[in-house]
Amino acid sequence: MTFSDDAIAIAVVVVSHQSAATIDECLCRLRAARDVAEIRVVDNDSQDGTLDIIQRHCALDPRMRFIGNPDNPGFAIACNQGARETHAPWLAFVNPDLLVDADTLAKLRIRALQSDADLLGVELVDEHGRCDAAARRRDPDFAAMLRSFAATRLAVPRSEGVATQPVDAVSGALMLTPRALFDDLRGFDEGYRLHVEDLDLCRRARALGATVAVANDVRVLHYRGVSSHSRPVFVEWHKHRGLWRYWRKFDAGKHGISANVGVFALIWLRFPLAMLAALLK
Questions:
Q1: Is it the case that residue 14 has pLDDT exceeding 60?
Q2: What is the DSSP letter of 149?
Q3: pTM for this structure?
Q4: Where are the domains positioned within the chain?
């Protein structure tokens, strides 16, 4: 199957916040990536020089534009802002601490077309080559977590020898999807501030009949959590708030009051432990 240049064009949305440590290389690589027609950077009130780096890249590349938010409205809102400012038929959401190769996004699009997958993620690895378990996840089942510790493990093992592996959810660090599906979903749920919005998007995509998958042969370096280092308590608060929102949105109505109370306790009793771990890290 052949496609015109317009049909294969990819629009990239990057949401930045205090990302000066990595965003220069991130944008250099995106500008060198095949089939990238548009790059939109939405900055959420960075105060560390991130905006200067973004503006320099914009001056050098007509495909680039940026939106500077005067505050930090959250990842989901900023992703939707960036998507609305693009027109290409494919959308890629790329974290500012993620470094693509020249063929990463084009290869991901090819995998989507070959496998009829509608929302794709990648194999994420850190600077030491360690794989990120968040690349392949199952839906969180909080009611099952009340009964079994094993249910808290969301990671899905890699299927060896399979190029494109269907899963419940992929990481929002890098997602590629046709614009038509993203529009049908009305974008990310803006009720999430940080974290869990990727689980939500994947679940709603599958509810529409879409296939969510990981391209196992596409590896991307991810310096995880660069933007989160300066405010670990803030990040953990919104992560746990997002988990509670996810439960209320998808599963709370299927269970009685005892399960809802139990899940509330499960999530919010975990918060101080997660906060302490983040502060120590």
A1: yes
A2: G
A3: 0.92
A4: 5-225, 232-280
Give the Cβ contact number of residue 66 at 10 Å: 18
CB 126 within 8 A of CB 223: yes
Look at 98-102, 111-115, 119-123 and tell me which has the smallest mean pLDDT: 111-115
Higher pLDDT among residues 227 and 211, named by residue: 211
Q: With 0-12 CB in 10 A as exposed, 13-18 as middle and 19+ as buried, what is 127? A: exposed
Superfamily of domain 5-225: Spore Coat Polysaccharide Biosynthesis Protein SpsA; Chain A (3.90.550.10)
How far apart (Å, rounded) are the C-alpha atoms in residues 34 and 36?
6
Residue 85 has phi, psi (to 5 degrees) of -95, 10
Model confidence at 269, pLDDT cuts 50, 70, 90, reads confident
| 51 token code pair | 């905006």
How far are the Cα atoms of 62, 137, 264 from residue 120, in angstroms, in the given order? 27, 13, 31
* Kind of pairing between the strands at 90-94 and 10-16: parallel
Reported residue count of the chain is 281
Q: Determine the distance from the C-alpha atom of residue 256 to the mean position of all C-alpha atoms in its chain, rounded to a whole number.
A: 32
